[in-house]
Amino acid sequence: MRAAIILLAACASCSRSARDDGPAGAPVTIVLKHQPLWGDAAPFHAFLDRFRRENPDVVVRAETLPNASDVAREMFLTALEGGADDFDVFAIDVVWAPEFARAGWLADLSAAFPPAKLREELLPHAVEAVTLEGRVYAVPWFLDVGLLYYRTDLVARAPKTYAELREFARAAMARDPRVNGFLWQGRQYEGLNCNVFEAVWGHGGELLDEGRIALDTAEARAALTWLRETVESGLSPRSVVSSGEEETRRAFQDGRAVFLRNWPYVWAEAQAKGSAVQGKVGFAPLPSATGEPGAGTLGGWQLAVNARSPASRRRAAERLVAYLTSHEAAVELALHYSRIPARRAVYDDPRVQRGAPFIAALLPIALAARPRPVTPYYALASDSIQGELSAAIAGLRPPAEALSRAQRIVDHLENPR
Amino acid sequence: MKRALPTAAVLVFFLGPLAWQLLTSLWPEAELTRPLPSALTLANYAGLGGTFARAVLNSLLVAAGTTALCLAAGASAAFAIAKLEFRGRSLLLGAALAISMFPPIATVSPLYLALKALGLRDSLAGLVVPYATFALPLTLWLLTSFFRELPDEIYRAALADGCTPWQAFVRVFLPLSWPALATCAILVFIFSWNELLYALSFISTPEKRTIPVAIALFAGEHVEPWGQIAAASVVATLPLAVLTLLFQKRIVAGLTAGAVKE
Amino acid sequence: MMAAPAAAILAGVALVPVLAAAWLSLHRSIVVFHEQRFIGLSNFRFLLEDGRFWSALRTTAYFTAVAVAVELLLGLPVAMLLHRGKGLLRAAVLLPWAIPTAVSARMWAWLFNADYGLLHRLAPGVDWLGSPWTALHAAILVDVWKTTPFVALILLAGLQTIPEDVYEAANADGAGRARTFASITLPLLRPAILVALLFRSLDAFRVFDAIYVLTEGGPANATETLSIYAYKTLMRSGDFGYGSTLSVATFLCVLAIGLLFVRVLGRQR
Asked: Over 90: is that where the pLDDT of A217 sits?
């Protein structure tokens, strides 16, 4: 009898101090900060519950934070700079990884997730985006990639070159004057950088030159000129200059355009009931100058572990990261939330091929996705780059001048006075 | 009749966009780009959920706390500045003004560290204090300006009646200042209700979220559910509309009490 | 001491971050690189040569001047309407100010949308947010819409303090509406007008949400105000040093405006 009471008392004191490194056997609580996944939250919660069942010594508290990248970044910057240790696993945007890693805010995960193994199992470019100086600081969770949507009822096939894009769009516009040619995102924000970089890659250019951001190149000038011309020639409506993803998606979904450059999420929306273009949409890699499939910008989110989490929580955190980025998890995310997997094998999984054929078919495009310059300086410079690119797109400055100004700013940032 | 046209113009200008917002919230999501919806639906409201209700409650608590703190500290200080003679009163007023001039974004990081040190981070009380601080200058200025307009004779009469300054303040001046107090209360309440930056940076547990942060959470990674956001903002504005309706009588209570005219 | 609580709150909570930010402005501090080097006034020297700063200052000054002027011109008639209006009207007019700025700005962004917006249907061919000139004025419109109620409310409080018998006397003297307004109402409203002007100017100079949601400061940073520049420098670039410098510079500008008004306010006493 006395033993039972002592045991009960011991258990009571255990649960009260669950958050600390309690006595052996007490569950460790780790906090997961993630963006709300668009759709029914139930499958994700069920998935987390399974982790709890398989890992009874770990309690996971999932907290959501806003999806808007800027808003989340502001929150993280303030918290991490302020030494926050009240969350353990958190989702970061693909462009923050090199920067946060350099700041020492992300735990080095190379032991639990060896780079070589990651490169084998996940898409190589995705791994490249999370590796800094050979060490892994985050694990890709799900991806995004820029691609081209086209109206199957207005054009026979997807264009392979920019010239074909122009030609096909003009032919369709001649037949139906109400329709716009090519919609893309030209507003001053990060999405503009994505669009421009895709054009640069499509023109055969590179963005990194020996680890330094290189913008003032002939290919970049050609790319920026091409984009500006789409607006000047009327191929793209003037509104492109102030449009983001949602404005262009809605326009395309309303049947107002032949071609749209956007992210994979548009597919589900365009094929949903009530969409004016349901059943009339195809997707393809972006065009390029030579006809080779163009590369889309790599987007998406990765899971990282807070460098300030104490050792005991870190092990549990790594287990959670492994679970959330496992094959099973990727299949769940693909089926329920249309998230593009970072794991190569998931694309061939029969469940995905049956339940999410769009995602399965995305493999070649996903493989070709390229990250924005993987250097800690990109996040610092991205804002200034946006300003200059926007000046060129809006016709306020010639592309060559905009690019050389951008290059000067980037150089100044990389070489502090 | 002469008032009808300007009244109508004012109503259209101010309420027009809001009516559009209300319409958007009843608009089926798939038809948002069409000129007019084919049918109205409550789906956007149904999707709001219990967490949003929780956020409304949190906002109410924080806003009420901020207003109370601001009015209490502000009214007494304003009275002191306006009627009592003490050194440094211009300095106080000036400093209050100066504080409110600083761009809030630069204060986020230092405040975060300060609140963390005080253990107030991630608590509703930890929001009330910064909010009250940044709403205090306007309150101080409005109330000081108001108290200055009230004649000094009233104060001297009260003192002659044997009141201490504090009693004079509470018994004589406060009842006269309903219009100004009501005005300040509404301004502070609304400021606190809609504040996003601090609420986002200082609160991390979902149960303590306030409305602006909750609305920011509606957006998916790319998709922005305009209909749902419109519905949320309508629900968020309702308490404010009700409060304003209740308070507006106080705002225009007027000084018909008679004490001032003498 | 009755003023003590207010003083304590202000000193404790507000002064600390402000002083901290001012201190940071004297450093080169890029958060990500854990750099924190004291460089004295170097940041300020760079600021004086920073074209983007001057451009932002011009934009901010223009925005403030136009927005506040329009708000005052609109606020006064609205306040007079509310003065004798029904309660419902008062509540209705206050609503724009009651909606979270981020939400109302988004609502206006939708209205301004170059393809679908209501305003597009009224004035097709104008890409409101795509060209710097119209974008800035679009932002001014949003700000005017949102904060005129605030100005009206302050002016209304001022109108309420004018005793009725003043009007009765004027009426008895045979003064017309316009004369009454010009020589009685307006002068008596002066304190309220100045308070409204003061606080609106201070706020307009630090405008952020209205413009950020509409254009993020674009195109080509043409609608970027000082607050947006400071925000981007602090949060996007993680440059806490220069970002704080920009904030201090904004503060000094706003201080100058404030001092100007206070001098005017003081003189009239």
From this structure: yes
Q: Are C120 and C179 in contact (CB under 8 A)?
A: no
- The DSSP code for A209 is E
Q: Is residue C213 part of a domain?
A: yes
| Chains sharing 3 or more CB pairs under 8 A with chain B | A, C
Q: Does a structural domain hold residue C27? A: no
What CATH number has the domain bearing residue C168?
Answer: 1.10.3720.10
Tokens of C101: 């700025």
Higher-pLDDT residue of C35 and C215 is: C215
C113 domain-assigned = yes
The residue extents of the domains of chain B are 67-256
pLDDT tens-place string over residues A141-173? 999 999 999 999 999 999 999 999 999 999 999
Chain A interface includes C27 (CB < 8 A): no
Beta carbons of C220 and A242 less than 8 Å apart? no
- The 10s digit of each residue's pLDDT in A80-127 is 988 888 899 999 999 999 999 999 999 999 999 999 999 999 999 999
Say yes or no: C228 contacts chain A, CB-CB below 8 A.
no
Mean pLDDT of A401-413: 90
Q: Centre a 10 Å sphere on the Cβ of residue A17 and count the other Cβ atoms it contains.
A: 11
Smallest Cα distance from A274 to chain B, Å: 6
Q: How many domains does chain C have?
A: 1
Kindly state whether residue C115 falls inside one of the protein's structural domains. yes
pLDDT > 90: percent of chain B: 6
Q: Is the pLDDT of residue A378 over 80?
A: yes
Instruction: Note whether B250 and B178 are within 8 A (CB).
Output: yes
Considering only residues C175 and C139, tell me which one the structure prediction assigns the higher pLDDT. C139
Nearest of A206, A245, A185, A183 to residue A370 by alpha carbon: A206
**What range does the domain containing C182 cover?**
50-224
**Contacts of C149 by beta carbon, 8 Å cutoff, 6+ apart:** B14, C78, C93, C94, C95, C96, C97
Better-predicted residue by pLDDT, A372 or B236: A372
List of residues 6+ apart from B152 with CB closer than 8 A: B83
pLDDT of residue A126: 92
Distance in Å, alpha carbon of C238 to nearest chain A alpha carbon: 7
Rounded distance between C-alpha atoms, residue B142 and residue B74, angstroms? 10
C32/A102 touch (CB, cutoff 8 Å), yes or no:
yes
| pLDDT number for residue A1 | 43
Nearest residue, CB atoms, A67 vs list B32, B201, B219: B219
C174 to each of A124, A149, B37, C170, C179, how far by Cα in Å?
88, 75, 56, 6, 10
Residues of C with CB below 8 A from A242's CB?
114, 127-130, 135, 215, 218-219
List all residues 6 or more positions away from C19 whose beta carbon is below 8 Å from its beta carbon. none
Radius of gyration of chain A (CA): 23
Query: A145 near A157, Cβ under 8 Å?
Result: no
Q: Considering only CB atoms, which chain A residues are within 8 Å of C114?
A: 237-239, 242-243
| B67-256, CATH topology level | MetI-like fold (1.10.3720)
Q: What is the pLDDT of residues C131-163, one digit of tens each?
A: 888 889 999 999 999 889 888 888 887 887 777
Burial A283-306 (b: 16+ CB within 10 A, else e): bbbbbbbeeebbbbbbbbbbbbbb
Residues in chain B with CB shorter than 8 Å from the CB of A35 are 221
Q: Do A245 and B213 count as a contact with CB atoms less than 8 A apart?
A: no
- pTM as predicted: 0.85
Contact B81 C150 (CB under 8 A): no
- Bridge partner residues of A33 (DSSP): A63, A90
Position C268 confidence tier, pLDDT thresholds 50, 70, 90: low
Check CB contact under 8 Å for B251 and C160. Answer: yes
Return the structure tokens found at A220.
């970049």
A55-66, pLDDT tens digit by residue?
A: 888 999 888 888
DSSP character for A122? B
Residue C82 C-beta-side C-alpha neighbours within 13 Å: 35
